[in-house]
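Problem 12. The chain below contains 116 residues. Write out its predicted structure in token notation.
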Amino acid sequence: MKKHEIKQKAGKGNIISKEPNEPHPSWDFSKDKFRIAPEPQISMQPPWKIMDEVYSYVAQDGSGAITAYEEEPVTLNEYELWVVRPAAKRCGIGHIDFPRGNMPWDKSLVKRPEGV
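Solution.
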């Protein structure tokens, strides 16, 4: 197999020649750090004005289901769920169209703003 010489034009018209697997400082990207900017995190925006005032919290669980809660729920991490005491009211609101945001399920809890 024939080796091909790699040529790179340097400043002032000089040509730098290298064998294919021979490292060259300007071609060594191993010390460079690249990162992609994370997507901005956006909270969901429940339609509070059309929801019963008894519900003060809305959250999304690990499966994507959206639920409204009367009391502040806590996470049950091993099942990726939000839970409240048994007597507290909760209601699935996944059928209502509203901006869902992109927060991870365990950071998706939204509290109803005062006066809404």
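Discussion. The chain is about 0% helix and 25% strand. Students who got a different answer should revisit the alignment rule from Section 12.3.
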